[in-house]
Amino acid sequence: MSCPTSPSVHSAGLAALALRQVGELLGRLDDDQLVALAEGRGQLVFRPAAPDPARPSRPRPAATEPGDLDATVSAIRALGSRAEVADYLRAHDDRLTVPVLKQVARRLGPTVATGRSKAELKRNIIEGTAGFRERSMAMSRGAWS
């Protein structure tokens, strides 16, 4: 049972992404601005970005809960080929957002590198799971001799 005030795994992932954005913002400030901020004479303010007319808005999928992440990781681990993993990721594309894919990649283990874009994350998941197994099997069968 979780405490109602404790952040979920999903919230922690979103907080990490937000902190990365804040870090990038701070990196663009000059020394005087950083000093003012550090001394309390300046402040960071959140303001939603204006909608981009070139990007139509779409409804956000429901947040993926930890149980959903476990099921996704188990399903990916059970798939035997790169094509099967790619098909699975394509079939679930609507709920596998970049933050969710990053969590999935971390849960899959050290053979899966995280990435920045959705395409990079999918490629890393495919190659770090079924691709890794296929390469390992090829080497153990003497394909390199």
Percentage of residues assigned to helices: 55-70%
| Quaternary | single chain
**What is the CA-atom radius of gyration, in angstroms?**
20 Å
Which word captures the global form? elongated
Biggest sheet statistics: none
State which percent range the strand residues make up.
under 5%
What is the element string, with H for helices and E for strands?
Answer: HHHHHH
Structural class comes to mainly alpha
Question: Care to describe what's here?
Answer:
The protein is elongated. It has six helices and no strands. Helix 3 crosses helix 5, helix 4 runs antiparallel to helix 6 and helix 5 packs parallel to helix 6. It has two domains: 30 residues; 75 residues, no CATH class. 58% of the residues lie in helices and 0% in strands. It has 145 residues and is mainly α. It starts with 8 loop residues before the first helix and ends in a 5-residue tail after the last helix.
